[in-house]
Design goal:
By secondary structure, the chain is α/β, with parallel strands linked by helices. It contains seven helices and 17 strands. A six-stranded antiparallel β-barrel has the order 12-15-14-13-16-17. A five-stranded parallel sheet has the order 3-2-1-4-7, with helices on both faces. A four-stranded mixed sheet has the order 9-8-11-10, with no helix packed on it.
């Protein structure tokens, strides 16, 4: 097959490209330029799309012996990922930009262009396993549970899965680094990226204040006790808070029991941020929309597990689907879940699909 290897400049994508070559594929490496202003690329390895990353990807391609190109997808990245991130926060929700990037950029824009150029598949360094099943290609969790990335890939549909390769899904990360060193790849010891790639200094709150301060309907608002309605403090923008947040509330009045308070709800129109005790964060039901199914949608109640955060724990659940609406009953209650996050549905290790959380129902105090 003709394979397009998406090379971020990290160790995983470099080894994935090399393994694709070893498998006999005709491989071409491509690095995605996602910044509209190259001067805004930060130095170091805080994110995944820096100038240094581009150079590292090019050097890895040279060692592997494959052609290499840089594709400018900055405009589409800004519209589909950055603007979505801002809009979601402005609406009082919590987005996952890596999930959106996989859906809109790596497995949509890149795949579309690759297929148009005559490539058969896109290979990436994601940790997930693809298997041929009775009803099509199935995606399963990685062998390395600590590195499993099936959650952020839960947005992929059957068409995208059929044109994807994940060469690292059956490997442990330590083995991948050792292999990179054996191959002479200079990125063998390069640290993994963890931050949001388009926030230069890693200060998400400061970046949001800079970008959303002028567009917010209410720049200032009140922090209110959820149980009593007492006003506990003021804030400069509800977009600076997330459900489950404890630090940075700056409350002048301590709780009667002396325990910390957490953000329970965000009302972006009024600017009200409601806080309360940890136990009030427990959620028993979710409603979600915009489902993306890896194969066929569940036809009836599905007893399954769901994951609600990247690298988060699994929760036993019952999922019911009606058109674009997904209802999730959590048999294992979850804590601090916010609208905007993704719920990814699993049948054992197989990814069934994902949807975007729109509302949560908290556990009653008497439960």
């Amino acid at each position: 097959m003709r394979v397009l290897a998406a090379m971020s400049g990290g160790v995983d994508s470099a080894v994935a490209a090399a393994r694709a070559v070893d498998a006999g594929h005709d491989v071409t490496g491509v690095h995605l330029a996602l910044s509209r202003n190259p001067a805004s690329y930060r130095s170091g390895a805080r994110g995944c799309c820096t100038i240094e990353d581009s150079n590292d990807a090019r050097r890895a391609a040279d060692v592997i012996g494959i052609p290499f190109y840089v594709w400018d997808l900055s405009e589409r990245f800004h519209e589909d990922v950055v603007e979505n991130f801002l809009d979601t926060y402005a609406a009082g929700q919590t987005p996952n930009p890596c999930l959106r990037c996989n859906e809109k950029i790596k497995f949509a824009a890149v795949l579309e262009r690759g297929l148009a150029l005559g490539f058969d598949a896109v290979a990436t360094g994601h940790y997930a396993v693809l298997r041929e099943g009775a009803d099509g290609v199935e995606m399963h969790r990685s062998v390395d549970a600590a590195k499993d990335q099936s959650y952020v890939l839960g947005v992929l549909d059957q068409h995208q899965l059929r044109h994807s390769l994940f060469p690292l899904g059956g490997s442990e990360k330590t083995d991948v680094r050792a292999e990179a060193a054996e191959r002479g790849l200079l990125v063998a010891d390069k640290p993994d990226s963890h931050d949001i790639c388009f926030i230069a200094d890693g200060d998400t709150g400061g970046w949001l204040r800079e970008k959303l301060g002028e567009r917010a309907t209410h720049e200032r608002g009140e922090i209110v006790d959820d149980a009593t309605g007492e006003v506990l403090g003021q804030h400069a923008g509800s977009y600076g808070f997330t459900i489950g947040q404890r630090k940075g509330l700056r409350l002048g009045t301590p709780a009667p029991d002396g325990k910390p308070r957490f953000v329970l709800d965000i009302e972006p129109v009024s600017g009200t941020v409601r806080v309360g005790p940890r136990e009030r964060l427990a959620v028993q039901r979710l409603t979600a929309d915009k489902p993306r199914w890896c194969g066929a949608a569940p036809s009836g109640p599905l007893e399954c597990t769901v994951q609600l955060r990247a690298h988060g724990e699994e929760h036993r659940a019952v999922v019911r689907v009606e058109g674009e609406r997904v209802d999730v009953e959590l048999l294992d209650h979850a804590s601090g879940i916010a609208p905007g996050q993704a719920v990814v549905v699993y049948d054992a290790t197989r990814v069934v699909g994902s949807a975007t959380i729109t509302a949560t129902e908290r556990v009653e105090a008497s439960a």
